[in-house]
Amino acid sequence: MNYVSHFTAGLPQLDIHTLSEDWALATSLENHWILLARSMGLKPSEWLDSQGDRMYGAVIHLTTSFDLADPLREDEAFAADTRFLAIRKPHALSSTRFLVDGKEKAEVRILSSFIKRKVRGSNKKFAKVRDIWTAEDLDGARIDAELERHHAMKSLPVEGVLAMDYEVNRIQDFNTADFLYFKNFVRIAKASEWRENRGKAPRLNSRREVWYFGNVEDGERVLAHVARASDACATELVDAEGRRLCLSLAEAPEVTIAPR
Length: 260
Hints:
The protein is of the alpha+beta class. It folds into 2 domains: 152 residues, Thiol Ester Dehydrase, Chain A (Roll), CATH 3.10.129; 107 residues, Thiol Ester Dehydrase, Chain A (Roll). The chain is 21% helix and 37% strand. Strands 1, 2, 3, 4, 5, 6, 7, 8, 9, 10 and 11 form an 11-stranded antiparallel sheet that branches. Strand 9 and strand 10 form a beta hairpin. The longest helix is centred in the first third of the chain and has 20 residues.
């Protein structure tokens, strides 16, 4: 099963060098949801567990990769081809490849899980649920391996400098499920990485891995710590109490940005 969407690259899809990471994440997750809905035969608004509580698809890990040497360019026609790589309910791993004439310019992989709130109106604790999803499992061992890495990354030490102190804004940062949206964690991390490197040769991510561990309420502070060693960049987002919300590990080489 796969889903393909088609686009022509313009300013909404591009950043200062190539395909926008923010746009690519949103498009990849949209295609991911379409495949999930097809696999269950239910619209997302109908994802309810056996108790009638709303189930939400939550991203718990993602990987992005970009061909910085051959970037996606304005006016190029491209496709976003999404397919599942593995399923072990309630988890699903998808790959979205961004292709120009069949050549891959970028890829996003998303590992999601179905969750629901443990306490109504709170973003602090969630439970995993697998009710109503009856699709066949696919390469479940791959999901198990990803979950083991997720557990290991929760305590991986990061000794970074405080690059940004961000106050969460519900009207800007939350989705319709009232969570801090998964791609906005990456947006905050990316902004803090640019701030930490400002005034030096520009660096963009050729590859990024992000693991998610928690969410926040409106008005909470998110502290971004960035540790950089040559092309390697580690960014940790924590709340005011030091609870790790997510961790990003990236390869960020120097890039020559074409003058405008």
